[in-house]
Design brief:
The protein is flat and about 65 Å long. The chain has 392 residues and is of the alpha+beta class. Strands 3-2-1-9-10 form a 5-stranded mixed sheet, with helices on both faces. A 5-stranded mixed sheet has the order 13-12-11-17-18, sandwiched between helices. A 3-stranded antiparallel sheet has the order 5-4-6. Helices cover 42% and strands 23% of the residues. Helix 7 (234-249) packs antiparallel against helix 9 (296-319) and helix 9 (296-319) crosses helix 11. It folds into 4 domains: 4-42, no CATH class; 55-83 and 118-188 and 369-390, ATPase, nucleotide binding domain (Nucleotidyltransferase, domain 5); 196-232 and 307-365, Nucleotidyltransferase, domain 5 (2-Layer Sandwich); 234-304, ATPase, substrate binding domain, subdomain 4 (Actin, Chain A, domain 4, Alpha-Beta Complex), CATH 3.90.640.
Length: 392
């Protein structure tokens, strides 16, 4: 078994010795060489990029409000974990848990621990914790690795992200260990992930309902013709449920319980058979634990304001659609993806309100991450769908 010092020596040889050898060789026979010496100089960004690229796995990341998914080049989706971090109170550096383990702590932590969601409404709300979370995912994707991984990363972002929010994503990824960062608009990534031919000269519409944002886009020739983003999505619907129970039944429930209710009996359209569920929480009048039976019709009513907002955003996008592309949509319909696509009856409601055929993608939860990964594996496609200004 080699000692720690011998391993260190090997790393030094790999990173420095080849440069010296090649430089000496090229100096001896500079006339026959077509490679400039500056390429191999220590600190040259091209040389460092190639070196780090050799030891790192390029990654596509769907940095979602609810979940973060990681796609590794050549391996596919390797991680799908909640975007939750548990830290020690008074410090953002002592990370105790990330992902599923941290989510299980939500609402159950003692006074010296806090479990937080570092992303809100699709963008970074806590810079340091997001950086720590990304570093955790990058290291976990590379396993037990001798060198510090420095991958190229493609990150999905909302379509109407501000320059300040965009800069926060870039800096978090770079500080977490990425050597290059490219930002792809989430509906574009989702469209590529579900197999829509985004480079064709015809209109395609996609609705991506995530945890923090609903992104709607009409795509043609590798670009976005019309897009709309609203910060009413899965998390807001969950919030409406907890508010409804609080003001209607004086029952206080946590975020996780609200989410479970939405998943188990939530719907956007009347069901053939309405469902009933028992909910446990705290009575706000007596302060004692309480159990309550609620039905799916009540939950649909509780979420109606948010669902109406999503439908309104879809109709507004269609209002801005050019006539030729509108005719394409009549033939092709609309693709519905993201976690919100799993809400019962949402496709039927959208069909009723728009008059267009609505198709739910096969794997709506992973479409953005798969799209980011496909772009990473196809350099010409990346150049067409990600502008130069969004590559760092």
């Amino acid at each position: 078994m080699p000692s720690k010092s011998s391993l260190t020596a090997t790393v030094v040889f790999l990173t420095i010795k080849p440069t010296a050898v090649l430089e000496k060789r090229l100096t001896k026979d500079s006339q026959s060489s077509t490679i400039p010496l500056s390429f191999f100089k220590k600190g040259n960004s091209v040389f460092r990029s190639l070196l780090f690229g050799f030891f790192s796995n390029d990654m596509g990341i769907d940095l979602g409000t609810a979940n973060t998914l990681v796609y590794v080049r050549g391996r596919g989706i390797i991680m799908n974990e909640p975007s939750v971090v548990a830290v020690e109170m008074g410090t953002d550096e002592n990370i105790l848990a990330v992902g599923e383990e941290a989510k299980n702590m939500l609402g159950r932590t003692p006074g010296n621990i806090k479990a937080v969601r570092p992303l809100r409404d699709g963008v970074i709300a806590d810079f340091k914790i997001t950086e720590a979370m990304l570093r955790y995912f990058i290291r976990k994707a590379h396993g037990r690795f001798l060198l510090q991984p420095r991958p190229r990363v493609v990150v999905g972002v909302p379509s109407e992200i501000t320059p300040v929010e965009k800069r926060a994503v870039i800096e978090s990824a770079l500080k977490a260990g990425a050597r290059e960062v490219a930002l792809i608009i989430e509906p574009m990534a989702a469209a590529i992930g579900v197999g829509i031919p985004v480079l064709d000269p015809c209109g395609n519409m996609i609705i991506d309902i995530g945890g923090g944002t609903t992104d709607i886009a009409i795509i043609s020739l590798g670009g976005i013709v019309v897009n709309k983003s609203t910060r009413v999505a899965g998390d807001k619907l969950t919030e409406y449920i907890s508010h409804y129970l609080k003001y209607t039944y004086n029952l206080s429930i946590g975020e996780r319980t609200s989410e479970i209710i939405k998943i188990q009996i939530g719907s956007a359209y009347p069901l053939k058979e309405e469902m009933i569920m028992e909910v446990k929480g705290r009575d706000l009048i007596t302060g004692l634990p309480k159990t309550l039976a609620i039905n799916s019709e009540e939950i649909r009513q509780a979420m109606s304001e948010g669902i109406t907002a999503v439908v309104g955003a879809v109709r507004n996008t269609l209002d801005m659609c050019p006539p030729e592309i509108a005719s394409d949509l009549v033939d092709k319909g609309v693709m519905l993806t993201g976690g919100g696509a799993l809400l019962r009856g949402l496709d039927k409601l959208l069909e009723e309100k728009t008059g267009l055929k609505v198709i739910v993608s096969e794997n709506p939860l992973i479409s953005v991450a798969v799209g980011a990964g496909k772009v990473l594996e196809d350099e010409p496609l990346m150049k067409q769908v990600i502008p130069e200004k969004d590559r760092f």
